[in-house]
Amino acid sequence: MILVRLICSQILFVMFGGFLHALLFRRGKSQSSFWEKGSVIYLVGLGGFGFCLFLVGLLRIRFSSGLIIILGCLAGIGWFFLSSPDIGTFMGIPGRFLAFLHEVRKKFRTWSLMEVILVLGLAGMICLQFLYTFGLPLMGFDSRAHWALKSKILHYEDTFYSESFYDSERIHPQVRHPLLLPIIQMVVTRVLGDYDDRLMKLPFFLLYLSLIVFFYCELRRYYSRLTALFFVLFLVTLPLLSTPTDGGITSGYVDAPMAFYFLCTMIFLVRWLQQGNFIPMAFAALFAIFVMYLKDDGIGCVASAIGALLLSLLVLKTSSWKKRILSLILFIVVIFLFLFPGKIYSYSLSVGKGEYFESILKPGSIMKNIGRLSKILSSYELEMLLNLPHWGILWIILLFSIVYNVKRFRVQEVLFVGLTLLFYLCVLTVVFIVLPWDLSQFFAGSLGRLILQMSPVAVYFIALLWKERMSEAGEALNISE
Amino acid sequence: MMKYFDFNRASLRISFYILLVGCVILFLSRFIETIFFIHYAEDLNFHYPFQNWQYNQLTAKIFVLQDTAWFFGFVLILSGLCLLWGRPRGLRRFVEEQSLRPSRFLLYCLLFVQLFLTSLFILAEVRIWWKRMELASGQEDREQRYFLCGKEYGHSLLIRKQLNPEERILLAGDQIDPFFINYYLYPLKLYLYDSRSISPAEVGRSYVLRWVGLKNIDAVLVYTPFSQKPWQVLKMRKKQYDPR
What we know:
The complex is a heterodimer. By secondary structure, chain A is an all-alpha fold. Chain A has helices spanning 2-24, 34-58, 65-82, 84-91, 93-107, 113-135, 141-157, 163-166, 180-192, 202-220, 225-236, 239-242, 255-275, 278-294, 297-315, 321-347, 363-368, 373-386, 388-391, 394-404, 412-434, 439-452, 455-465, 467-470. Chain A is globular, with a radius of gyration of 22 Å. Chain B is an alpha/beta fold. The termini of chain B are far apart. In chain B, helix 1 packs antiparallel against helix 2 (56-86) and helix 1 packs parallel to helix 4. Chains A and B meet through helix 6, helix 7, helix 11 and helix 20 of A and helix 2, helix 4, helix 6 and strand 2 of B.
């Protein structure tokens, strides 16, 4: 019975994702493959359903199990009316999967030894994360004390307008943190009917799987199967992403899901730069909203991406640059309109001492603490270049790739992604300068996780940098082949 | 193959040795951590992560040693590869004559180093968890098998039996992380004295008692995780606790 309920909870996300996907594709036909479409539907559904419930919660409607199921079913009906063929395709997943396995078995002999090794490596990583998801409870501090506590409150109290959030003397850390992740966890536990800190990690695992598929499909647009597999394995084997504690994807921390959604935002913005049409922009806006609602740091990520996009449009002008800047302005207006309700709610809450530093984020306070800069930069160096147990040689490969492919910065999308990473690092630096905490202590526990937020984008950036050197005309095969 | 990597030539031989030593150092540095953690797994109280500070001095030294080893191992690998690359009939020539693109070969080399490092990391990680599972397998309680949160979970069940969710509770104690405890004790309504934690000795002070009266606190929960009796519930309303 638990298994059935668990599957039902995930079907709710899929139905909502399918509805949003169909809604956006009313203006155009999706060119993506079945697997890419499926992964995007889950990614959109997970964030979209959580966000929708947050908006419902703002109206002081309680999160009862009935409400959650009705909302999911309504989305499913909407999906059916908007795009019934899509539902049929989706219902045929088991058949598709069997056909896929059959095809793999048929083509297996044509695979090179290297491809087989990479696929086995990928399968091993997925199995490991599966074990971490269901074999271990939440073990990190933030995952329990911050995120799971919020989901527990929502599970038992059905609302975020309760004493647990509003009584400033009650123990509740970082009360103003966005609620998207706790709401997603709450959906699983409400459908399960019981609070279980292992089973509520299932969305993280499926998010991980969806991202692997989506990232692979994206890379297959311009890379051979071997190279695409290499980059995907490179991403999923980042040590800090793979650990069951301290920020790993199944650790219950928000950083890895946020990093994945940030990567999705960047991929769709790059597609928008390449194609210039509405649909990638709309998806990018959706993912950007999820990034901002997962953690406040997400606002920094999205602001960095917007700044980088604007600069790359202005520096490397194309024929339609004015039209694109107008689209970008619309993008900014839309995502910040959606951010508005969350911020109104969060500012209605009182906070503990030293928890929020907006009040000291002033030019004066930056100048006053500028002496911290050397400490911050040396910590970056230690963390990114020398902390091999966290990153392997990700950042060394990134630096090498930049030096080796410096001419690629004349390409708009490469400049955009590179500037985004640089700007986000600058945002983090400014925050660290004004942060009223002891930096040594803070960095010991948190710097790795903050860098983690941009690591998937860094892998994508490396892939973009090598695109010209690595891709061959004959290699750009369609994923379905 | 030998025409590219002729071991009779001293320079090539040295390059190979440098590369090999780099790989061995990297591997050993990973091994240091695995051995260290497994050796201390029985001593380190994984039930309560905040207790690990007793070992901070030792872990700091181990980590410095490990980081240094990582760094030198990696530098040696890079030096070995560079030296091999630049030989008259070295790696570069080999790559070109095998119809491989040098850029692609370089990227694959780097990615392989990354995967090698990660596989070492994951092997160590899996071994550590396996060892922890073995250590915990003797315990029958399902929650105890979670070995990291088992102790808090067990305590929280006992505490929740003593108090009810309607009561307002002041949390006091040494070396506690109230946020962490709160996750396990929810739905109990926990309060901190003026948003800070107080020690058991402070509970009887007049300023705390005044605050307790003002806030209509029903009970004080004294939580000292490292003592024999880790928790103690003092009911204010029933006058079980009287500072005078």
